[in-house]
Amino acid sequence: MTTRAWRSPTLPARRELIGFAGVGLLAYAVDLALFTYLRGPAGLDPLPAKTLSFLAACTVAYAGNALGPYRTTRAPGLRPYAVFFAVNLAGAAVQLLCLAVSHYGLGLTSQRADTVSGAVVGMALATVLRFWGTRTWVFRAEGRVGSWTG
């Protein structure tokens, strides 16, 4: 007689979230390393350097998610990448908005305040948006509407 191992209903959601976070950390490292290189040794101005590092990080994040946590829900063609890129642009806008509100709206102009508002609060809110957008619009599974809790 075989016994079936008990599986938590939240296990797939937890694996998805952990996989998404791992890919995100890798993409963040690519973004930071490439931006640092392009600003330093390559001598690019900040905006072109950030644009190129953002594009590279988006590509790494898309490939990592498509081959990792969402490998069974990947749609063919360029549309998923375009939607993924749009979701990531929205996440970047959230980070910039948090920074702008803190720096210009609230007058919190220290480097520490800018870091907390943009890289901590903004990143946290942007990550929630990116996770929801990625699983809802880019890598949709049949029968799943967008809730990641069940």
Q: Specify the number of helices.
A: 4
Helix content: over 70%
Average pLDDT, rounded to a whole number, is 85
Report the span from N to C terminus.
31 Å
Q: Give the DSSP E fraction (strand runs of 2 or more residues).
A: under 5%
Structural class: mainly alpha
Structure report:
- This protein is 71% helix and 0% strand.
- It has helices at 11-39, 46-67, 79-105, 111-138.
- Helix 1 (11-39) runs antiparallel to helix 2, helix 2 crosses helix 3 (79-105) and helix 3 runs antiparallel to helix 4 (111-138).
Note the topology.
Layout: H1 11-39, H2 46-67, H3 79-105, H4 111-138
Helix pairs in contact: 1-2, 2-3, 3-4
Protein traits:
single chain, 150 residues, mainly alpha, 4 helices, 71% helix, 0% strand, globular, disordered N terminus
Short description:
The protein has 4 helices and no strands. The protein is 71% helix and 0% strand. Residues 1-8 and 145-150 have low confidence and may be disordered.
